[in-house]
Amino acid sequence: MSSLSKDIVREVLTYDNYDEWQVLMKNYLVGQSLWSVVDETECQPPTGDPSYAAWKEKNSKALHAIQISCGAVMFSHVKTSASASDAWKALANECRSAWGRRRKITETLCSHSQKMKEVLGDDGGEGLSKYRILYDAALNGDWKMAKWFIDKHSEALAAGLDKWSNTALHIAALYGNTQFVIELVKITPPESLARQNCVASTALHLVAEGGTKRMAEVMLERNQSLFHIRDSNGMTPLLSAAVFSRKDVLSYLYSRATDADLNSNLEDCVAVLIHLINAECYGVHVEFPDTHSHTAKKYYKDEEDPVKEEQVSNGFPQRSSTHQLLCYSNKLFWDVLQQIVPSIKEVRRRKLMHLQSRELVKQLFKKVTMMIKNDHKVEQLLGPPLIVAAEFGIVEFVEIALKYYPRLIEYPDANLRCIMQVAVLNRQEKVFKMLNKKGRQITLRTFDRDIYMNNILHLAAKLAPPHQLHSVSGAALQLQRELQWFKAIEMLAPPKYKERKNSQGLTPQLLFSEEHKDLIAKGESWMKETAASCTVAAALIITMMFAAAFTVPGGIRSDTGTPIFEHSHSFLVFVISDAFALFSASTSMLMFLSILTSRYAEIDFLESLPRKLIIGLAMLFLSIASMMATFSSTMFIMLRNRQGPISIILASLGVVPATLFAFLQFPLFVDMMSYTYGSGIFH
Predict the structure, then answer these.
(1) Secondary structure (3-state) at 105
(2) Running DSSP on this structure, what letter comes out for residue 116?
(3) Is residue 375 over pLDDT 80?
(4) How far apart (Å, rounded) are the C-alpha atoms in residues 135 and 87?
(5) Backbone angles phi, psi at 215, to 5 degrees
(6) What gap in Å lies between CA 178 and CA 213, rounded to an integer?
(7) What residues contact residue 233 under an 8 Å CB cut-off, 6+ apart?
(8) Given this model, what pLDDT does residue 41 score?
(9) In angstroms, what CA-CA distances link 66 with 13, 77, 78, 211, 587?
(10) Gap between the Cα atoms of 139 and 172, Å rounded
(11) How large is the angle between the packed helices 213-222 and 178-187, nearest 10 degrees?
C-alpha cells in the first residue's frame, strides 16, 4: 500500500472492504472540497466556460485520490474513467453486484490456493493431479469417460479434483453439464452430495448460482438436507439462487421449503425478497410465515398472468371454458405480435413487471396491516421507505401507503420534511399531483419548517437535483421549469410564507435568485446563441426571396412588362410561396432580434422569452418550407416542356431541407410548446 493512499484510507479497495472504504473516501473528498464533482452537484460545464478549468482541476484531484486508493483488481475497473463521478459509480456497481460477489469468491479461492501450495508444494500435491482424467470428463460433460474412471477409482466420487477442493459434481454443476450431473448423482451416496469445497459451497450452491432446475431436482431427491447447508458467506442454496436471479431454480427450491424452514429462517425470506426486487424478478411470489395461521402458502406466480388472483376475486371463474378461451386468445395475440414486432416483447415485459411490483407492494402492506397494530411502529417501519418513494417519484408506492395509512402524509424525514415537501424539493411532479389532488392531502404539516427553517416555498426555490434538470433540454427551458415549480407552490402556500426567512436570513424569492444565478446566466447565453444562429438563417432567406420576387422565372414581356407565365399554375405557386417565405422569415428575424435585445430578468424566462422563441422557430420553419416550394415551382416552370420524372424528382428534393430542419428542431419545439402552453403542474 502506497504512502499516498495511507493518508486517505486505511486499506486499498478490494471486494471485501468496500463499505468501510467508501465511508473513509467520502469523508476525505468532503474534507478536500472535492465531493461536489463526485456526487454531481457540481456538473461539468462546457469546455469553453470560464468555470471549466476549476472543475477540471477538482475532478482530476478527486479521480486521482480514488484511483490510488484502489487495489490492483479494482484499479482495472476505473483506470479509463474520465471523471471522478464515473469512477465512483463503477466501483459501487462492481462491488455491490452479483458478479462482485462471484469475484470475491474467486479471490477467496485464490487465497486458499496459495495456502495449499505452501502445504503441498508448487506442483499442487499428488492428490490434485491423480484424478485429472475425471476432472477433464466433468469439465467437458463426458460421462462415459467419467464412468470408466469411477469404476476403477470409486474413492474419486468424494475427492477434491482441483486446488479449490471441488468434486466432480461441483465441476459438472459449475460448467452446466446437466446430463452428466444427473448420471453422477445416481451413483453418488447421499452423504457425498453434501461435500463442500474450500468456501463451504456444496454442488447445489453452484447449481443455484448458474445451473438448471433439473440439476437441483435430482440432488434434492437424493438428499433433502442439502437445502439447509450454508456456505462460508452464510448463504443457503435458496438465497444463492435469489442473489444470482435464477428464477427457475429459485421457484423450485422455494417449493421444497417446509413451513418449519420458513418460520426458522425469516431473515432468509427477507433477503430473498430484497434480492428479487433488486433483480426485478417479480414473477416469484415469496410469502412470509403468517403469525395468524399455521401454514404458509407457497406458489410460483406465472409471469404471463401477474394478476391472476385479482381476476378470480373479481368474479371470473378461473377454470371456466370462457375464461380459458380468453386466456388462450390473449396469449396467442401477444405471441403473434411479438413475432411481428420483436421490440414489443420488452414493452410487455416491463408492463408485466410494473403490475407485479404494484401487486407486491399491496401484499406487503396487507401483511403489515395484519401483523402490526401499533400505529407508532407502523410509522417507524413504513415512514422511511415512503420518504424514499417520494424522493424518487414512485407514485404507486406513495398512493398505496397513504391508502392503508393516511397518517403517513405527515411523517417527517431526518430534516423534518414531510413527503409533500420531499416531492417538491426533488421536483417529483407525479407525486406532487397525486398528493395535491382535490386538495385532500394538504395539511398544516405541509407548511411546517424543516431543521434549516425552510418552508415549502424555500424548498421550491432551491435548485432541482441534477438528474431532474438534465431531463429538460436547454438551460432556458430548465429555468422556465424551475420558475413554474416556484410559482405553483407560491399559489398553494399562504401569502405570509412569501416573506418568511430561513436560517440564512433569505426569503424564498431571494433564495431562488441565489440558487439559480448560474442557471440564469447559462439560460441567457443559450437563448442568445440560438437566436443569433436563427437570425442569420432568416436573413439569408429574406435576401433570396426578395431577389426572387424581381427575377421571375421565364422573364417578362418587353412590351407589357408582365411575366410570360403569369397564367401558369406553377407561376401562381411561385408568387404565393415567395411572398409567404419573405413575410414569415421577416417575422422570424424580428422575433429573434427581440430575444437578443431582451433584459433577461428571471420572470422573462417563464413566458416572454419562450413565447418569442416558439414564434421565431415556427416562422423560420414556415419560411424554409415556403422557400423550398418556391424552388420546386421554379423547376416546374423551367422544365415545362419536359414534364416527367426529372421535374418531379428535382421538385421533390426541396422537401429534404424542410424535413431535416423539422426533424432536428422538432423535439426542442415540442418541449417548448409543452412547457409553455401545456398542462401546468396543478393540472
Answers:
(1) helix
(2) H
(3) no
(4) 40
(5) -60, -45
(6) 9
(7) 101, 199
(8) 83
(9) 9, 12, 9, 37, 55
(10) 6
(11) 0
User: Which residues does 620 contact at the CB level (< 8 Å), separation at least 6?
Assistant: 534, 537, 538, 584, 585, 588
Q: What tens digit of pLDDT does each residue of 547-583 get?
A: 888 787 766 666 766 776 676 777 888 889 999 999 9
pLDDT of 111 over the 70 cut: no
Please, which residues have CB within 8 angstroms of residue 389's CB and are 6 or more apart in sequence?
A: 395, 397, 398, 401, 431
**Does the pLDDT value for residue 299 go beyond 80?**
no
Radius of gyration of the chain (CA): 35
Cα dist from 443 to 15, 309, 380, 488, whole Å: 47, 36, 20, 17
Burial 436-453 (b: 16+ CB within 10 A, else e): beeeebeeebbbebbeee
| Cut 0.70: pTM above it | no
Question: What's the per-residue H, E or C state across 499-522?
Answer: HCCCCCCCCHHHHHHHHCHHHHHH
Domain range annotation of the chain: 3-96, 100-300, 518-677
Q: CATH homologous superfamily for 100-300?
A: Ankyrin repeat-containing domain (1.25.40.20)
Instruction: Give the Cα-Cα-Cα angle 621, 575, 589 (nearest 5 degrees).
Output: 35
Element (H, E) at 270: helix 266-278
Is the CB of residue 517 less than 8 Å from the CB of residue 482?
no
Confidence of residue 122 (pLDDT cuts 50, 70, 90): very low
Cα dihedral 360, 361, 365, 366, rounded to 10, equals -30
Q: For residue 380, what is the enclosing H or E element?
A: helix 375-392
Pairwise CA distance, residues 253 & 495, whole Å: 61
Output the DSSP codes for 537-573.
Answer: HHHHHHHHHHHHHTS-TT-B-TTT--BTTTT-HHHHH
**Per-residue pLDDT averaged across 30-59, rounded?**
86
Q: Quick one: pLDDT at residue 321?
A: 57
